[in-house]
Batch of 2 targets.
Target 1
Amino acid sequence: MNRIVSLFQNFNKNVAGESGAGLLNVYFTAGFPELNDTTRVLKALQDGGADLVEIGMPYSDPVADGETIQQSNDRALENGMSVRILFDQLQHMRETINVPVLLMGYLNPVVQFGIEAFCAKCAEVGVDGLILPDMPMDVYLDEYKSIFDAHGLLNIFLVTPQTSEARIRQIDEVSEGFIYTVSSASVTGSKSGVSGDMEAYFEKLDAMNLRNPRLIGFGIKDHDTFAKASSHAAGAIIGSAFIRVLQQSTDLENDIKAFVREVKNSSEAIPA
Amino acid sequence: MESIAEKKSYQVNDRGYYGTFGGAFIPEMLYPNVEELRENYLQVLADPSFQKEFNDLLRHYVGRPTPLYRANRLSEKYKTNIFLKREDLCHTGAHKVNNTIGQILMAQRLGKKRIVAETGAGQHGVATATVCALMNLECIVYMGEVDIERQAPNVARMKMLGAEVRPATCGSRTLKDATNDAMRHWINNPVDTHYIIGSVVGPHPYPDMVARFQSVISEEIRYQLKEHIGKETPDYVVACVGGGSNAAGTFYHYLDEESVKLVAVEAAGLGLTSGHSAATTALGKPGVLHGSRTILMQTEDGQVVEPFSISAGLDYPGIGPQHAWLYASGRGTFLSATDDEAVRAAFELTRLEGIIPALESSHALAVLGRLGASENETVVLTLSGRGDKDMGTYMKYID
């Protein structure tokens, strides 16, 4: 069974989330801060307690991302990162990594690699799902879905506060794994926190009784925001805030583990 | 625009594609904005009150129709019959205003309160700031830091018109980066903001909508040419291509007349093999850029290459999806001109005809000797803009 599907099936929020915490998905950019840090960062995230990991494939023109992630993309590209090198780095990933792994990126580098070859490589190294924000749903369904399916890859769709109810239903219908719930109208990293407007939107989604679980992303940066988002979904996604940790780190392994533990477990320090 | 023929094989299909190019490759955050436009644009365009307001503004505000001028001394030099479509005489100095007038009226009808735009040479930014002043809408223009430096007069014009000019500081700090930032701004402000794309690029329906607004160029060429030579069809129509909006307007009403050769001229920069070029079809491959499947300059790994041209308006690594299809289908002929060739052509036109062209348009002029047009044939070349903004560059060559 696909690791993402089984993770959500086995996840019992009442047991797992004594502090109201759900599943934590952490994004980082491949080849950042240094070219060969990809697997180190991945392993440290797992060791720290991340439940899923989203590896960003750097792109020159990441329009859905804010400044922090764009800078990490630029740096990774300067380091010489490419899709080809990423697959080399992930070749032996499954010897040590058990958590579900997703690749996130923009469509053009994937298309240039070749969709078929790309999906085959994903299956070979043990990638479980893809997030390609600029891939239209109709193109996915008409051209790519059969290839994704053949290689056991899930495609993760996004919904935003502006997504209509009809389209949310449609996305839920074609989704498997989870739905990436964008918390506000923004690119990544530009707004922080969980506002009252957002909570109303999360509650609306909750009330829709979708078939797929949801992870909330954009604006999640620490234990507080993670716990708040988790109370409205199966969990949440941290990206830009983690990239900032990597930017400032002098001891990657320990800083990463400390960050993840703090996001997931610092509830004792915070009055209920 | 009512005269648009119903069935055109080089036009967009009902799914938003030109052959294999086009579509709407956008993140979900932009989907509602683009979908709102897609659902409404044809209906708005067909509305007689929209048509009347658009045509009145083109006539009384922009100064249309622009002349179709027979350039006698230039014709003599190249031993053929050359007509210049004088878009340089439009209000604000370039064809860009045809599109911004159309889009601001569209934005008003969609109830938008704020306009965001990207600009390269600054012509589209000025044209956008102009219509925002006219219609009293807030205007934010993203412009690459590099372009802000080399197009100072246009930056000043935008500011005087009341626009906020925001520098794009990532990547190559030129047009593609300004486009990324404008898209991000739209993502962050989805409800009340309309994004006025300046060229025939971006997700469907932008390429089609912008081409329709610019199609007034060839609509006029047809009847004006008939007054000159007794027929509506020349042998060649020539235009420069960055994203390709003046070319799209110039080609529009000739797309299905195969006797008319469509010639698009890209910027070769320092030369096609120099590593400093913006000649997309010569150097690019199919892929996805700024919301559409098109041809773009990219590395083997699919990273977008930073283009190079002396002309900020042509300094773009892609072309509109319709142009990609004209190229791939063989309907269009794609040539390129280097920086030096363009500057030489600018001086030639200036000295022969007393017209100082924009650097962009000079690329089109630079291929006149390569067309192979005979003395019995007719060439219509769109002079997309005037050269005032480029005087800083031209002055360096005056010796």
Target 2
Amino acid sequence: MLSVTDLNVSYGPIRALRGVSMQVGAGEIVALIGANGAGKSSLLRGITGLVPATGQVLFKDAPIGGLTTPQRVALGIAMAPEGRQVFTDQTVHENLLLGGHLLRRQPQRVEANIARFYDLFPRLRERREQIAGTLSGGEQQMLAIARALMSEPSLLILDEPSLGLAPIVTADIFRTLARLRSDGMTILLVEQMANQALAIADRAYVLEGGAVVLEGAAGALRRDPRIREAYLGGDFAHRAA
Amino acid sequence: MLQAIIGGLTLGSVYALIALGFNLTYTTTRTLNFAQGDFVSVGAFVGLGTVGVLTAALGADAVGYVWFYALAAVAAALAMGVLGLPLYLAAIRPFAGKPGMSWVVSTIGFGIVLQSAALSLWGLGARMLAPPFGDEVFRVGEVGFRSQELVVMALAFAILGGFDIAMRRTALGRCMRAVALNRDAAALMGIDVPRVMALAFLASSALAGLSGVLVAPILSASLFMGVIIALKGFSAAIIGGLTNPRGCMAGGLLIGLVESLTALWSAQWREIMVFLLVILVLAMAPNGMFGRKLVEKV
């Protein structure tokens, strides 16, 4: 579904991404793991067109490198960005309407989608007239995901959905992702919580210094000593547990 | 006293229109159009020209003139709104979203070009645009209204109210607020961000052009009148809070009132009091009375 080849992203003199190649197949959950500054967010911003990037990005076998972000969204790529970035001065309902911006000429379809995501996240229905800035972190994350889904994407990208959330809320979010996948959604997931990401993902890429240093099936990576050392708390933590 | 309040609210509602224009471009692009003043002046002259052409072609009578004036207002708003697009493309787009203040010079420069072109067309002199409902003064008890004051207030308040509702209730208003808050997130919704920015410039320029036609019958129209009006509109936006459209409107009315009430006592002190007020408000609330700090994400 998504195929990235030799992608480079630079911010001025700083090269944030150095020749990254990766694939996401239809129906897969693919995780990107790595430390702060490893280039995970730059990769996502390059894929969605929020930053200029060189290299090739194919989506459903068509090159999208020259397209603007809204054009990529129209093709079926949606992202719930890092830190949620909901529109904090608008209501939950208005945020969802904005998510359905590209379908605004079909109001019934937008309303049907909103109803669907209220079913997926009943908390959002309860708070539909509430200003998004007053929601809890978990509710904002649900809103960010629902808002991204409003454009009826075939690829959902999530940038650190667990950021700043209590473990129980994170678990809830991850259960929702699993459910979305079983409904046929393809998901590209960036996470610092490597353990949980690898538990849900089919495959994963490990980024370091703006490049892919390791890739493979999620199960294999979970057992890989290098990953355990660097991202899963290491052997010491494992023995302690 | 009441008389002065009416006069103050009249000019204040015009400042509020200009301030709203500053708010629109600031929130969506983080830039300001310092050519607003020239859009006001040139808007007034486009209005004068429209009235002149229509009167020459169709002859003048009192009833017809009301329509000519209305058409002149529409023409000025349209012409200035359309000129807002090249302003955006030439003076803002290359610089918006980038650090630096190149847009300050580029918008001032655009204004100077516009003013110079208008000067070569219409000359230096001040002219009077006749008010659409004549110079009559309506008396309600002690207070006399000039008809144009009512026209200005009615139209300005209708537009301000309409904007306020549109920003809250319409899809375009939601998009504008989304772009104002977070451009990247707005782009991820599929919103065409540059288009929204261009629209903001179109709307703010149209507001300036319309303001020109509104004030021309009150102040005499010259190609230099816009600068001080826009400066007060800018002050209104600053004290009300650049980020808050309602604050901008309130700031406009406040400045109009202060100016007009000071004039009761001493006409020379008007501008002094207005800008003292600006300094005072900023000393107490650096983001204006109703503003908040916008953090620019890089």
